[in-house]
């Protein structure tokens, strides 16, 4: 698939069939996601692949009350593949104290250096690649946040030094998916190019 078509077709799908996703497809999607940019070659973004039904059910159950109030299906419960996108801030801070990075940042305080936490930028880049790779593979994807960090850490044995940024859902789009937009927001048109791109000055 052409890159421009993958970008155009990418959207969050909020209704999945019960058809499984081929293991090779999942592997290719995650292989693409791990190839995202990484500040200082820190490579502190990692993924936890969850296909175990009980663990997926535990994650999905955290949204049951909300979906019941909204009278909508719990699409996290439907998705056969959950991918926890996680990041270790310590990997980045340690990396930037190594000699090659210190040649550039030694005069910069940690407070100034991490005004923008690069690890979240890298996690977002990895997520974008994951979502685009899913489109390229012909499967559906979504992303959810707001799941309790300690629940995720306990469920998968994640070290406390890692932050679970959110969960990507992979599966096959259900026929009714297009009727479900954002869980708690009305649809809005994408802002036009000239409103979001500022040339040379704001």
Helix residue percentage: 40-55%
Strand content: 5-15%
Shape: globular
Biggest sheet strand line-up:
1-2-4-3
Output the structural class: alpha+beta
Radius of gyration: 19 Å
* Helix-strand sequence: HHEHHHEHHHHEHEH
By DSSP (H or I, 4+ residues per run), the number of helices equals 11
Question: N-to-C terminal Cα separation, in Å?
Answer: 35 Å
Low-confidence stretches: none
Biggest beta sheet summary: 4 strands, antiparallel
Mean of residue pLDDT?
94
Give me the count of strands. 4
Please provide a written account of the structure:
This protein is 44% helix and 13% strand. It has helices spanning 3-9, 23-33, 53-61, 64-70, 75-78, 89-95, 99-105, 110-113, 118-137, 149-156, 193-196; strands at residues 45-50, 81-87, 140-144, 163-171. A four-stranded antiparallel beta sheet has the order 1-2-4-3, with helices on both faces. The two termini are 35 Å apart.
């Amino acid at each position: 698939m052409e890159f421009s078509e993958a970008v155009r077709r990418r959207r969050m799908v909020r209704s999945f069939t019960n058809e499984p996703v081929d293991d090779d497809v999942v592997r290719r999607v995650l292989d693409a996601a791990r190839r995202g940019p990484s500040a200082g070659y820190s490579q502190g973004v990692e993924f936890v692949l969850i296909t175990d039904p009980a663990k997926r059910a535990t994650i999905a159950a955290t949204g049951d009350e909300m979906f019941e109030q909204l009278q909508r299906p719990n699409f996290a419960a439907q998705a056969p593949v959950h991918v926890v996108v996680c990041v270790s801030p310590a990997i980045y801070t340690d990396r930037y104290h190594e000699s090659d990075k210190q040649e550039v940042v030694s005069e910069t305080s940690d407070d100034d250096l991490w005004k923008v936490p690069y690890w979240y930028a890298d996690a977002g880049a990895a997520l974008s690649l994951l979502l685009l790779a899913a489109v390229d593979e012909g499967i559906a994807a979504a992303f959810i946040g707001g799941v309790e960090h300690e629940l995720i850490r306990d469920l998968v044995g994640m070290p406390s030094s890692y932050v679970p940024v959110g969960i990507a859902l992979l599966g096959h789009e259900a026929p009714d998916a297009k009727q479900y937009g954002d869980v708690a927001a009305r649809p809005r048109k994408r802002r036009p190019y000239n409103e979001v791109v500022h040339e040379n000055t704001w």
